[in-house]
Amino acid sequence: MSDALPVPFEWIDNDHDLDLLLDRLQSQERIALDTEFHREKTYFPRLALIQLAWSDGIAIVDPLSCDASKLRRIFGPQHLIILHAAQQDLDVMTHAMGTVPERIFDTQIAAGFLGYSTPSLASLVNSELKLVLPKGDRLTDWLRRPLTDGQKSYAASDVEHLLEIHDLLTAKLEERQRLSWATDACEELRQRKVGPGNPADAWQKQKDVRALKPRTRGVLAALAEWRERRAMASDIPPRQVLPDLALQGISQREPANLADLAQARGVDDRHTRGSIGQEILAAVARGKENPIENSVTEGEDVERHLRPAITLISAWISEVARLEHVDTALLATRNDIVAFLRKDADARLGDGWRHDLIGDQLDDLLQGRAGLSFDGKGGLKMIAASNAI
Question: Which end of the chain is less crowded, N or C, counting CB atoms within 10 A of the terminal residue's CB?
C-alpha cells in the first residue's frame, strides 16, 4: 500500500450515526478495533478516536462528539474483537466504556507463537502481507479538532489489515497446533487487571527504595500515596502534584513545618501555599509513625536456597523459546518463574500450555533429575543427572 493512497472510511461523530453503525455490525462475527488516546496531561487516559474495521468497511468514531460507551453493544460473546498490542487499548476501554470485549484476539500475542518477538503492527503487516503501512506523525494531537483527512486516513490504516492478518496467523497457528495457546494467552491479557494500581504501593515505583532507612521508606510511602490519590481526584499526572525529586527530598528531610518544607529539594512555592503544604506535612507525620522495615516487592519473595534456580530456569526457558519459536516474554517472565518456585496455586508455569511445553522439564531441573550443558552449537541442552557431573 502506498502512502499516497488514502484509506476509505466512514467518519462517525454523532450518536445517531453510531447507533446505525452498531446495528450494521451486529451481524459481523469479527471486528477489528484500535484506539488513539492521550494521557500526558491527565491521570487517566483520554480516548481520542476509535477505529473499527469489518468484512466490508472501516469507520472512525469520534468519542469527543458521541457516546463511546455505546460500543459495548459489540463487546458480547458473539463478536471476536481483533486488536494489536491490546493492553493499553483495554485500559482505555475500561476507563472510557466501563468494560472490555468478552472475546479478543491480539495479533501481537498470536505472532509471538510463530517466532515473532513483540512485533509492531507495521512490521507484522510488512512480513505477512508484504505491504508498507503509511507513516504518520507520531506526535499527532488526536484530541485536536478538526483532524485532517491525512490524519484520519492514517488512523484508519491501523485497522485496515487486521482481519487479514488474523486469517493468516490463525491458519499458521492451526497448522502448528498452537491456536489454543494463543487463545489462552489472549484471554489472560483480557482478564489482566487494568487501570490504576493501589495508591499505597505507588512508593515502590521510586528508585533505590532498598537503600532507604525504614522511617524514610515510611515517609516516602505516605507521600507517594497522598500524591497518587490527589492526582486521581484531579485527573492530572502525579508529577504535576509533586515531582519525584520533591517526593524524595521531602522524604529525606522529614519537615515538621512549612518553613522546613520549603527547604526540601524539589519543592517550590506552590507546594507550601494553601492546603497542599499542610497535606504534605500530614503525610510526612503519618509516614514517620509507620516505618517500613522490608521493601521486598512482589515477585522477589523466594527462599534463598532457590534463588540460583531462577537463573538456571531463565536460561532454559530462553533456550526452549528459541527452539520452539515462541516469544520468551510469552513463555515466562521472571515473576512467573518465582511463582513456580514458590509453588503458588496460580503459577502460570504450573498449568496450561506453558506446563505442557516446559513444566516437566523444569520439575526435572529442580528435583536434580536433570542438568544443563552447552550443546557445542551456541545453545543449551538438557542432560540426565547421571551425565551432569
Answer: C
